[in-house]
Specification:
The complex is a heterodimer of chains A (120) and B (112).
Chain A: E1 5-7, E2 10-13, E3 19-24, E4 31-38, E5 42-50, E6 53-57, E7 64-68, E8 74-78, E9 87-94, E10 110-111, E11 115-119
Chain B: E1 4-7, E2 10-14, E3 19-25, E4 31-37, E5 44-49, E6 55-58, E7 61-65, E8 71-76, E9 85-92, E10 101-102, E11 106-111
Parallel strand pairs in B: 2-11
Antiparallel strand pairs in B: 1-3, 3-8, 4-5, 4-9, 6-7, 7-8, 9-10, 9-11
The chains are: A mainly beta (120), B mainly beta (112).
Chain lengths: 120, 112
């Protein structure tokens, strides 16, 4: 079974530009989450999608946005890039998390290799 | 997010030694996960814990979900050079919704 696939692996942008990152989850996984990883802040949660709906959002400015398609693939977008946006952006997929009701006590997240963004 | 305190920050050990690292939280968690990350790669899931007191092994790795639900530890026995990497704990509770809260990581170096 193929793992989580993220594209592109590496990219360089300049301040003020925007970027779109793509994530294909493990087949059958319907939940996709995005995390930002930096040396200073570590791994920080951006947002989570299930069935094309954003269910959870981290503490990031509105420049960070995302979406999920009907095939569970997801994209995230960062507009008006700043130097501090340089980071490894990780996508993770999960099998669990049916919508509604109590949070199920399952839901292991499987991560992709990440997209390394450098903002100059 | 909720803060997880992971220690030690780094470890430098000899091949064959056992390793122990832990994570504590000010909040109660209902899930603890342990990941390993190699340079340039994404985190790889090692062990998942879902019940207080649960002790789970994966080869030479053993992890426990603390009774208070505010801590977890990971042990690696008889370390080998390929154990080198950064180990992260992660926890989830109803307050965090579907988000994982991560520790800052323990960097492990193993010398032959």
């Amino acid at each position: 079974k193929a793992g989580v696939t993220q594209t592109p692996r590496y990219l360089i942008k300049t301040r003020g530009q925007q970027v779109t990152l793509s994530c294909s989850p493990i087949s059958g996984h319907r939940s996709v989450s995005w995390y930002q990883q930096t040396p200073g802040q570590g791994l920080q949660f951006l947002f989570e999608y299930f069935s094309e709906t954003q269910r959870n959002k981290g503490n990031f400015p509105g420049r960070f946005s995302g979406r999920q398609f009907s095939n569970s693939r997801s994209e995230m977008n960062v507009s008006t890039l700043e130097l501090g946006d340089s980071a490894l952006y990780l996508c993770a997929s999960s099998l669990a998390f049916s919508s509604g009701g109590a949070l199920p006590n399952t839901g292991e997240l499987f991560f992709g290799e990440g997209s390394r963004l450098t903002v100059l | 997010g909720q803060q997880l305190n992971q220690s030690p920050q780094s470890m430098f050990i000899q091949e064959g030694e056992d390793v122990s690292m832990n994570c504590t939280s000010s909040s109660i968690f209902n899930t603890w996960l342990w990941y390993k990350q190699d340079p340039g790669e994404g985190p790889v899931l090692l062990i998942a814990l879902y019940k207080a007191g649960e002790l789970t092994s994966n080869g030479r790795l053993t992890a426990q979900f603390g009774i208070t639900r505010k801590d977890s530890f990971l042990n690696i026995s008889a370390s080998i050079p390929s154990d080198v990497g950064i180990y992260f704990c992660a926890g989830r509770n109803s307050n965090s919704g579907y988000a994982l809260n991560f520790g800052k990581g323990t960097s492990l170096l193993v010398t032959p």
